[in-house]
Amino acid sequence: MPHLPQPGEPGGPADVTALGASTAPIQESLYCRRCRRGVNIRTNDLGVVLEYLHAAEQRGQRSDHRPEPALVTEIPDPIIECDFCSAPEAAWAYRCANQITDHRRVTARVVAVSDYRSRHGAARVRRTDTEHALTQAWGECWSACHGCADLIEARDLYGLIRRVVDSLPAKLTRGKHLMRTRGQLHDTYSAVFDTLAPGRGRIAPGHPLGIWPDASGGAP
Q1: Is the pLDDT of residue 210 over 60?
Q2: For residue 2, which of 127, 180, 164 has the smallest C-alpha distance?
């Protein structure tokens, strides 16, 4: 499942749901039956699914078809990309607590009348009103390429953020967007590091959830 920041959608802090027992079954990601690539879920504040998105759409690209979601274990030969930098052929599977991010949309910006008269479009915003837009669930299972996995094993948070930022399109990293994107990645990956379950699974043909060395990761 793709785990990238969303342009133009201010978000609140991630709500990290406890992973629970390390022997619990792995929560499967959704993939598209047509293109065999990861699918993400957006819901409203009641948990009702609003839409499914391809990984390419999460990165601001377009898809030529609507997602046909199914569990990854139901997809023949799924195309598993790195959930961090989007590199092809992810090599490792990690488990962490499920994160739920509340995205909010701006409904109004309030400025002082005198400030607006003197500064017009440059008037300073005194108050910003928002409302709930959607909730995004990142899931428990994260796939990683060899490069990102090395940084995860070293618990190199800032190295991982740098690697991911380098892989993102310019519209997420240009100018003022860079600080915001790095902040979102820091919040998300800090929660991943803080709640990582022991061990990791090796992704192999026929084993999209990973082959785990023992029961601590939940054998596929």
Answers
A1: yes
A2: 164
